[in-house]
UniProtKB/TrEMBL annotation:
Pfam families: Fer4_16, QueG_DUF1730. This is Epoxyqueuosine reductase. Its cofactor is [4Fe-4S] cluster; cob(II)alamin. One of its GO terms (molecular function) is epoxyqueuosine reductase activity. TRNA binds at K223. Cob(II)alamin binds at R60, D133, T151, N154, L157, L168, S216, C241, D242. It is an enzyme of class 1 (oxidoreductase).
C-alpha cells in the first residue's frame, strides 16, 4: 500500500475512533465556482449585519491562504441530533437542538486537536490547522467536495444516510492524500418543504438564503432590535431555529447522538424561561452556545416573541 493510502486510512480510522460520523477528504485548491456565488450573496446584503462575512474573501475561497502549502482539506461530521427533544408545544419557548448541551466549539475542537496530535505522532511533522465554524472556511462546500453530502435548498449540507443535524469541522494540512469523489447530484429533487415552512421567507430560492431574514440570525447574530416586520413570525424560537431541518424528509434518517456533553442539563429541562434572572442565565448557560446571545439578547428575543 502506498504511503498516501496508508495515511488516508489512518485519518479515516482516527476520525471514527474520535466519534466523528463521517470523514471525507478533498484537494486543497481555489473554490473557483464559489467565488461569483459568494460575491453575489454579499452584494445583495444577504449577510445582514454580519460584516465579518465580507472579510477575508480570498481566504474563504482558498485554504492555501490559511495554511502554508496546504494539500488536503479533511471534512468531518459530528452528530448532534438529540435522543430527546426539549418541549416544543404551542406556548413553549424553543432553542435550536445544537444548543442543548455544551458549546460545540469546545467539544469538537478538543477532538480536532487530539486528531492532529495523533497524526503527528503516527506520520511525523505536519503543518495544519483545525477549524470549527471559527474561521473563513466554506465548510459546506468543502464537505460536498469531500463526498459527505450535497447542499439542500435551505443551504445546509444534507447526507443521504443521516440528514443534516451535524456539526461540520475541518483539518487543513500540508499532507497529500487520497481524495474522495464529490457529491454532484442534488437529491432534493422537486421537494420544497423547507422553503414552504420558513415563516420569514428567508429561503429565497434553491440553495440561497437571505440570512438577514433567518430566525437564527435574528435571535443570535443581530445585536440590534428585531425588526417589527417579524412580529408573529418567530414561532417561539428564542435562540436559533430548526424549522427547515425538522420538515426535511432526509432527517427521518437522523439517529440520536452518543455525545454526553450535548445532553441538556436537568436545570435546562425544567427552566422557567419567563422567570429567568441574569444569575440563572449565567449558571445554566455557563458553557453553552447560548452565551453568544448574552442575557440581554435572550431577554430581547423572549420579549419580542411574547409581544406578538
Amino acid at each position: 500500500m502506498q504511503q498516501q493510502e496508508k495515511n488516508t486510512l489512518l485519518i479515516k480510522n482516527t476520525a471514527r475512533n474520535l466519534g466523528f460520523d463521517y470523514c471525507g477528504i478533498a484537494k486543497a485548491e481555489y473554490l473557483e465556482e464559489e467565488a461569483p456565488k459568494l460575491d453575489a450573496w454579499l452584494a445583495k446584503n444577504y449577510h445582514g449585519k454580519m460584516a465579518y462575512m465580507a472579510n477575508h474573501f480570498d481566504k474563504r475561497l482558498d485554504p492555501r491562504k490559511l495554511v502554508d502549502n496546504a494539500q488536503s482539506v479533511i471534512s468531518l461530521m459530528y452528530n448532534y441530533y438529540p435522543p430527546k427533544k426539549l418541549p416544543e408545544g404551542k406556548e413553549d419557548l424553543k432553542i435550536a437542538k445544537y444548543a442543548y448541551g455544551k458549546d460545540y466549539h469546545f467539544v469538537v475542537k478538543d477532538k480536532l486537536k487530539s486528531f492532529l496530535e495523533i497524526l503527528r505522532e503516527e506520520i511525523g511533522e505536519i503543518n495544519g490547522r483545525v477549524f470549527v465554524d471559527s474561521a473563513p472556511v466554506m465548510e459546506r462546500q468543502w464537505a460536498q467536495k469531500a463526498g459527505l453530502g450535497w447542499t439542500g435548498k435551505n443551504s445546509l449540507l444534507l447526507n443521504k444516510n443521516s440528514g443534516s443535524f451535524f456539526f461540520l469541522a475541518e483539518l487543513i494540512i500540508d499532507l497529500p492524500l487520497k481524495y474522495d469523489n464529490p457529491v454532484t447530484k442534488d437529491y432534493c429533487g422537486t421537494c420544497t418543504r423547507c422553503i414552504d415552512a420558513c415563516p420569514t421567507d428567508a429561503i429565497v430560492q434553491d440553495n440561497l438564503v437571505d440570512a438577514s431574514k433567518c430566525i437564527s440570525y435574528l435571535t443570535i447574530e443581530l445585536k440590534e432590535e428585531i425588526p417589527t416586520e417579524f412580529k408573529g413570525e418567530m414561532e417561539n424560537w428564542a435562540f436559533g431555529c430548526d424549522i427547515c431541518q425538522d420538515v426535511c424528509p432526509w432527517n427521518r434518517f437522523s439517529r440520536p447522538h452518543q455525545e454526553p456533553e450535548f445532553l441538556p442539563t436537568p436545570e435546562l429541562e425544567s427552566l422557567e424561561w419567563q422567570e429567568m434572572t441574569k444569575e440563572t442565565f449565567n449558571r445554566v448557560f455557563k458553557k453553552s452556545a447560548l452565551k453568544r446571545s448574552k442575557w440581554e439578547g435572550l431577554k430581547r428575543n423572549i420579549q419580542f416573541i411574547r409581544q406578538t
